[in-house]
């Protein structure tokens, strides 16, 4: 058996999410079926993060074990050929030691959330960004975001379906950057709770519109109560950017 | 009659191009039908440039004349509501003097051509960029591109269907800029011939792959012969970015 690490880009729009589902297509299934077509082996593909339906990947990391002797580069080319027409691309494929695990070895995960701040609807970015019509104060969003950085109980920002053992997480970075009518939110942590990034971005959107103060955001965090969440942002604007390993 | 100038963004993928066609949908038709739904008037929409099938718009300029009294902001909002589900958005709408013409008053047109330089296929950018698998030398492309800047007979870089009276054009800018695996080509001129940007980018792609030297590009230009064109780049990566007016 050889373990291969994959760097995967995908368009989340047609998928029910990363993880295999009974009721619809998933990125995991698309790659596992491509691997079967290439090797004849039924493999399991493990990822650094299990993204929701409609969430995209720029540099998701994953691994799979293959018995058949095959070079990493040839495996990458064959997976890319077989995964069509799914909007999934293997950007990199490298051999790894057997104890390297895309999920458990991961030291940090980086997300980007893309907002388009304008009245007009989206065209070629439809499904790839969250359009907010009301003028957003990105500086106020960035300042408020710093209240969430650090080690906190993120119960308010956690889906009721979250399977994590603890709501305690350390958020390393939450930066809000405007460029013209584009606002990007950069979030980094060792790991995130289910819906955490979307929940934080949703509340920052309220801050940006002046509907919430920074104090409202702090109160929501300290309440540790999901019913105090202001807004869960849509999956459209969320991109899994990168995972870091030792 | 009031003349309104529009700034239009559109996703070129579902359209036969900007201009109205008998055999398929066009951006012009989508906006004209939205204007009819809003005002009950059969109007003609004139644009700064007539883009090809599959070419996108970030900031196309256009104008239309409306008899019914309506404020510019309300017209914009109503057009955006009525143009759905077409991937067309009116970003700005302003009143203009009657002698302002989106096409004839235009002093400069700016295009961007987006290349993704990697082996893996495109996912969420499919139809929004030209993927070139072979390693490109962007510096060599930029250096060669400077041979095309200035006033030249661009017959080699002109579609046989071009309706321009003269093949003489002044190219003001042709810059090639790499950022990671993204290469952008920025082209600016008072006006372009039909297929000129795609034809120039196609040949620069050959230079980037080392299949053509800068000398080959100069020879192709000086030949003034369409059959000497190396390659016409696909429409996917081409975006009409901006038009300038007095």
UniProtKB/TrEMBL annotation, chains A, B:
Catalytic reactions on record: uridine(38/39/40) in tRNA = pseudouridine(38/39/40) in tRNA
Keywords: Isomerase, tRNA processing
InterPro entries: PsdUridine_synth_cat_dom_sf (IPR020103), PsdUridine_synth_TruA (IPR001406), PsdUridine_synth_TruA_a/b_dom (IPR020097), PsdUridine_synth_TruA_C (IPR020095), TruA/RsuA/RluB/E/F_N (IPR020094)
Active-site residues from the entry: 52
Coiled-coil regions listed: none
Gene Ontology molecular function terms on file: tRNA pseudouridine(38-40) synthase activity
Residues the entry annotates as binding substrate: 111
Quaternary organization: Homodimer.
Family: Belongs to the tRNA pseudouridine synthase TruA family.
Task of the protein: Formation of pseudouridine at positions 38, 39 and 40 in the anticodon stem and loop of transfer RNAs.
Entries under NCBIfam families matching the protein: hisT_truA
Protein name per the record: tRNA pseudouridine synthase A
Native species: Sphingomonas agrestis
Lineage of producing organism: Bacteria, Pseudomonadati, Pseudomonadota, Alphaproteobacteria, Sphingomonadales
């Amino acid at each position: 058996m050889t373990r291969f690490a994959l760097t995967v880009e995908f368009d989340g729009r047609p998928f029910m999410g990363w993880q295999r589902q009974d009721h619809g297509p998933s990125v995991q299934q698309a790659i596992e079926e491509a691997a079967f077509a290439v090797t004849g082996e039924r493999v399991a593909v493990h990822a650094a993060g299990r993204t929701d339906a409609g969430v995209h990947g720029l540099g998701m990391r994953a691994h799979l074990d293959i018995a058949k002797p095959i070079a990493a580069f040839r495996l990458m080319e064959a997976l890319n050929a077989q995964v069509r027409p799914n909007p999934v691309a293997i950007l990199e494929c490298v051999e790894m030691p057997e104890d390297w695990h895309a999920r458990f070895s991961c030291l940090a995960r980086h997300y980007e959330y893309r907002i388009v701040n304008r009245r007009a609807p989206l065209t070629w970015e439809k499904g790839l960004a969250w359009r907010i019509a009301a003028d957003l104060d990105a500086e106020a969003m960035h300042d408020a975001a710093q209240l969430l950085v650090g080690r906190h109980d993120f119960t308010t920002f956690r889906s009721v379906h979250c399977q994590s053992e603890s709501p305690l997480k350390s958020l390393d970075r939450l930066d809000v950057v405007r460029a013209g009518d584009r606002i990007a939110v950069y979030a980094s942590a060792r790991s995130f709770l289910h819906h955490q990034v979307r929940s934080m971005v949703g509340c920052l959107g309220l801050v940006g519109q002046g509907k919430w103060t920074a104090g409202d955001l702090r109160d929501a965090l300290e309440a540790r109560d999901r019913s105090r969440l202001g807004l869960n942002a849509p999956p459209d604007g969320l991109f899994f950017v990168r995972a870091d390993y030792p």
